[in-house]
Amino acid sequence: MNTGTALITGGRTGLLGQALVQVMQSEGFNVLTPGRDELDLFDARQVEYTIRKNNIDLVINTVAYTLVDQAEENQEKAFRLNRDLPGILGQVCRENNIGLTHYSTDYVFNGKKNTPYSTEDAPSPLCVYGRSKLAGEELLMRNPWDGLLILRSAWLFGPFKTNFVSRMIQMAESGRPLNVIHDQLGSPTCTLDLARYSLELVKKETCGLFHVVNKGQASWCELASEALMSAGLSNRVNPVSSGEYPQQAKRPPYSVLDTSKFSMVTGITPRPWVHALREYIFQIH
Ligand SMILES: NC(=O)c1ccc[n+]([C@@H]2O[C@H](COP(=O)([O-])OP(=O)(O)OC[C@H]3O[C@@H](n4cnc5c(N)ncnc54)[C@H](OP(=O)(O)O)[C@@H]3O)[C@@H](O)[C@H]2O)c1
Hints:
285 residues; alpha/beta; single chain; globular; 6-stranded parallel beta sheet; 9 helices; binds NADP nicotinamide-adenine-dinucleotide phosphate
């Protein structure tokens, strides 16, 4: 599919959703982003009516319960948004024979590996958020169709909404101390790159599970240091261990994702996260 009409859930306020809207529109797609007051995503009949009325070719679902720590105490809400919602959207898209691109996370892994996780590796989440996202993947994969794409990504930063990188810069600028975890390694990823790479997969009319992240790896501490350096700030970033910085949800110590399946299908090697980070920071600064 090279053009058409896409319904992007979370497209009005979400970190990734807004990046997708910008990229899809610039690629000539007609984009719909109904707000909560206009469309109840949990109402399958309403979703189906919207799809038919607007001749929608593709639904892109970025709506999720993304508060990783709060999910530990809001299990029901996390599963409703991260498992039940993709289940409903999947059923409607499958019955109407249209595409669904759905996002998942590196937190489906337990981090016991020390080489990048491929789509063939067995997930084993450590926290409620990861379990609820995995449950969403599994529900969709129970009845797959040739329009279904599930894209796992990680550690997102980008324009339009506060994120880890913008928060670090804001804290440094206000002179607050920066104690940042150094013993969790992942794949920092720019939302605009993820949106572009997602669209490449859509254009290939491929389906299934993919890992889509920028190239390279970093700890949260390295990501913060690089962000500050790019922003011309010389604040010290104090490395702390996960043990010294207790969080409600347990995170994988290592969750770098292997994108070779994505590269094989699209012919694209994702650019290094450092390049994407600098471009983002130069644009906001
Ligand atoms: N952020 C990351 O680092 C990261 C990493 C890996 C994977 N992912 C995955 O990537 C996807 C996008 O994440 P994100 O960071 O862009 O999420 P986000 O910024 O938290 O956006 C979530 C969106 O969902 C909307 N939403 C929440 N509850 C809703 C409801 N009941 N009805 C309608 N809309 C609702 C929110 O609207 P309001 O603003 O109105 O609440 C917001 O637009 C998710 O699937 C996430 O699991 C994210």
